[in-house]
């Protein structure tokens, strides 16, 4: 796919799915801005990608000040955005009795509030005909015990994406959702112990974890002209996890 000189912003682009997607867009010729909370992680990502077409912005998406930093960086660039990939996310898995207000707020602020206000603040900088992608999760559809708050954030995100697709259609901006199943990322390693990862792999029809590159390919497809009649919908990239779990 060709994204030569297209301008792409990826929130949460330092590791995992965001980093894989940044690499794929750079390989396809795009100029890519990645965000994350930590300068050190952004530097590591930049060293891996090693391209003059990659730019990084320290921006905590869970805070309005962080979103303003990204908005200023985009405004300062003076170019319209062709792709906005809202991908930053955190998950905390625990039974409902153990959910604290702090954990609840952290997940909703990052996974829901942050994405909504990033989209709202960057709307003036989106080119007409741009593509907006959200990273949701199979957790939005599944109802696994212990994932109550995380799943609720992703369910809320799906609804934001669906309605944004309708509100932005007049500008020919397409808005879609990519919902990964279990994908081998640093984020998964942080929240899912090794034995539970083996269980998750066995809960997919393809009997393995996904690779972040496999999610990236779907993001590039949805961002491309090949998906010109696709908006307001979700593509699940889960090795058959949802279907297999319900068999
Ligand atoms: N891996 C899976 O199995 C899986 C499955 C379904 C959905 N997802 C979703 O996929 C997305 C990416 O996850 P991943 O698995 O690739 O995890 P990851 O490796 O932990 O990557 C998460 C990214 O988000 C960034 N981030 C986290 N909080 C942020 C904040 N407040 N502001 C800005 N950036 C922030 C992180 O950067 P810093 O740490 O540098 O801030 C990092 O770049 C998430 O939305 C996650 O919910 C993952």
UniProtKB/TrEMBL annotation:
- Asked if the Swiss-Prot or TrEMBL record annotates the protein with the keyword Cytoplasm, the reply is no
Protein name according to UniProt: SDR family oxidoreductase
Highest taxon listed in the record's lineage: Bacteria
Keywords annotated in UniProt: NADP, Oxidoreductase
Gene3D superfamilies under this entry? NAD(P)-binding Rossmann-like Domain
Q: Which family does the record assign?
A: Belongs to the short-chain dehydrogenases/reductases (SDR) family.
Annotated Ketoreductase domain ranges read 6-186
């Amino acid at each position: 796919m060709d994204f030569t000189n297209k301008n792409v912003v990826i929130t949460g682009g330092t590791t995992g799915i965001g980093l894989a997607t940044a690499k794929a867009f750079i390989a396809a010729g795009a100029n890519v801005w990645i965000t994350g909370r930590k300068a050190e992680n952004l530097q590591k990502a930049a060293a891996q990608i090693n391209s003059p077409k990659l730019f990084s912005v320290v921006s905590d998406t869970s805070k309005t000040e962080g979103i303003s930093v990204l908005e200023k960086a985009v405004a300062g660039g003076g170019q319209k955005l062709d792709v906005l990939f809202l991908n930053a996310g955190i998950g905390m898995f625990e039974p409902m009795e153990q959910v604290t207000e702090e954990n609840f707020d952290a997940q909703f602020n990052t996974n829901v509030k942050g994405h909504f206000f990033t989209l709202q603040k960057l709307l003036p900088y989106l080119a007409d005909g741009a593509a907006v992608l959200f990273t949701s999760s199979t957790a939005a559809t599944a109802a696994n015990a212990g994932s109550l708050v995380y799943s609720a954030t992703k369910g809320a995100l799906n609804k934001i994406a669906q309605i944004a697709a309708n509100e932005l259609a007049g500008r020919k901006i397409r808005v879609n959702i990519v919902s990964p199943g279990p994908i081998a990322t640093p984020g998964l390693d942080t929240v899912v112990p090794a034995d539970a990862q083996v269980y998750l792999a066995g809960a997919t029809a393809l009997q393995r974890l996904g690779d972040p590159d496999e999610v990236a390919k779907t993001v590039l497809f949805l961002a491309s002209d090949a998906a010109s009649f696709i908006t307001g919908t979700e593509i699940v990239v889960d090795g058959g996890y949802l279907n297999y779990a319900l068999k």
